[in-house]
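fwd from M.: "can u put these together and see what the complex looks like"

so here's what she sent:
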Amino acid sequence: MQRWSKLFIPTLREAPTDAEVASHKLLLRAGYIRQLGAGIYSYLPLGQRAINKIVAIVREEMDKIGQEFLLPTLNPRELWEESGRYEVMGDNMFKLKDRKGAELVLAMTHEEVMTSIARNELRSYKQLPQIWYQIQTKFRDEPRPKSGLLRVRQFLMKDAYSFDIDTAGLDKSYDLHDAAYRAIFTRCGLEFVAVEADSGAMGGSGSQEFMVYTEAGEDLIASSVSGYAANLEKATSQLAPVEDLAPTGDGTPELIHTPGKGAIADICEFLSILPSQDIKCVAFMGTRSAHPAGEPLRPIVAFLRGDHQVNETKLNAIAGTAELRPMLPEELALYIGGPAGYLGPIGIEQVMTNGSLNGLKSGKPLDKLKGVSRENAGEGLKTIVVLDPGLAGRKNLVAGANKLDHHFRNVTPERDFSTTLTADIRNVNEGELDPIGGQPLRLGKAVEIGHIFKLGTKYTESMGARVLDTNGKEVTPIMGCYGIGIERILTSAIESSAAKFAAAGNADQYALPATIAPYQVVVTVTNIKEANLLVEGEKIAANLSDASIDVLLDDRDERAGVKFKDAELIGVPYRINIGKKLAEGQVEIVDRLSGTTTDISLDNITAHLQSLLTTSN
RNA sequence: CGGGGCGUAGCGCAGUCUGGUAGCGCACCUGCUUCGGGAGCAGGGGGUCGGAGGUUCGAAUCCUCUCGCCCCGACCA
C-alpha cells in the first residue's frame, strides 16, 4: 500500500500548449512524464510504474520462449560498418567520439551485437535454435519527433532475435513470437490487429506488424473481423459487381458534346450515370528511386473507376518510381493529348510496353531499355499506362475524349485502348468487403506496437556467422527479429481509452487496463478530518494490499472533488470511495472502465474487487 | 531539410503594433471559514521577459544574429 500524501504525483490542471495528442496531454497532466527536449522524456514515478508493469508482462511471456540479455547501447562504429548499416542509417543514428577519438554510435537496434555474439559462440546445429531478447533503450535521431511518446528519440524496446538452422526452424521461432505477442498485447488490454507487412528486399518470407487503431497513429490500415488486415498501401477488397451501360449507336466509341462537365460528378449527372460507370484519369510525372541527376521525368497515366482514388504508393511500386507529381497542362497535352477534365484513354500514343516496365523497375539505365525514348519529341519518354482491375472486363464506359468539352461513350478497355499493364493502384474504401472473408473493411489510422520479421541471413551472412549442420557442413544460421515498443503500449492504451471516453462525451478522460495501470485501485478517503473515514480507509487499503492488490490510498488533506479528479487523471481503473455511506457499513466501488458505481458492504470489498480484476483481465 | 507558429513565474495567458522599468488566473506558503466533484476571503513568496549583440536617456516591446520547442510536409532501419 502506498499513501498519496507521501508520493510525488504532480498532476496538472491544464496541459502545456505543446501537447497535441490525447496521450501526450494526459501523460503530462497525470504526472507520468515530463519533457526534457524534442523527443526526450523523463518518466516520473507514476509513468515508471506503468512502464514496469508492461515490462513485467513482456518479460514473463518472453521468458516462456527465449532468454533475456542486456546488450550495450554504446557500439563501436566498425560493428555497424560490417553489416553495412553505418551508411544505411545515416543521420538517423547518433554518433560520438570517445576521449581517444575512437568513433562510437548509440545503437538503434541490436542485430549487429546479437549477431556478433552468435558468430563468436555458436558452432553447431546442436546449439540451435536460440531465441535471445532484451528490454532496453534505443536511440534514433528522428528527423521529426512528435506526438509525445509516440515518436521519440530515446525509447524502450523489447527486441528479440532468433537463430535457426533452417527455414522450418525459423517458421517455428516466428510462430512462437506471434503467439507470445498476442498474449502480451491481450494481457495489456489492447485491441490490436496483426497486419501483413512488406517483407521487403531482404528475402524474408514473412512479416507482421501489430497495430492499434488510433487517430494519433501514423499508419493507415484496413482490417475486418474475418482477420484480414493490411496497410493501406497493400490492402485490396472485393468489388461489388457493377452493371455496365448498354451500348449506344453501333457500340463503338461515340463522341458526345459535354460542355462544362469536366468534373466526374458533373458528367455523371449530365448523362445520368454512376461514377462507377465512368473512367477517371489521373496523370503524374514520376521520378525513379536512385534518381540520377538530369534523368527525365517519367509520364504515368492511371485509369480507374470514377468513384475510386489512386494510391500513390501502389502506383509508385507498379511504375518503378519513387515520387509523383501531377502533370502540368503542357505535359497532359504531350503525353495524353487532352486538357484537364476531359482526359481519357483513347488516343494516347507511345504507350510503354510491359517488358520495358520490368526493366525500369529493376533499375536498368534508361539507355538500356528498349522503346523508352519518344523519338518524335526528342525528349520525354513513353507513357506508362496503368489500368486498375476495377475497370478490367468492363464495357461501354464513359471517358474523357481528350478534347475540350467532349467525352466518349461506349469505351471498352483493351478493345478501344491499350495499356502497359493492369494492376491494383487504388485505395480501398471503408465498408468494402475484404478479399479473404468478405467482411466489411474498417479503415483508420493506427500505431505500430510490435513487428515480427523473418529476417533471413542478411546479418549472419555479412557478419560471418556459421555453424556446422548434421553433415558437418558449414551453414549460415537463419535469423528472425522481433520488436515491441514498450512506451507505445502505454500510449496506445491511453489513446484508445481516451477515444472511448470522448465518444461518450467525456473529454480528457481515460482509464488504463488494471494490468498496466500504475495502481490497480485508489482508495479515496473523502475527508481525512473525519477520523473514522481515514481509519477505515487505511484498513481497507491494508486488506487489499494483503490480497496482493496494488493499492494507492488517497490520504491527502484535500477536498473530495480534487481527489476524485486526480484519481481519474492518473487513469487507475477502480476507485473505492470511503465517505458518508460508511455509517451504513458501505463504500462505493467506481469501475471507470464500465462507468458504473456500486455500493459494497465492508466485508465484501476485497472479494468484489478481486472478481472485477479477474474478469477485466 | 522545406513551410508555418510559439518562447514573459511550475501550468495557462495578457502586455510587444504605438519603448517609460512586468501583470492576470490556476498552482505554491500563512490564517480563518468550508468539506462528495478541481472551495471562499485575507495576506504572502516566486520572473536574467529563451540567449547574445545593437539602437536609445531608457528595451519584454525596435533592429541583427542565435538557441529551443510545437505543428504540416519530406523522412522513418
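replying to her w this: Confidence is low (pLDDT under 50) at residues 200-204 of chain A.
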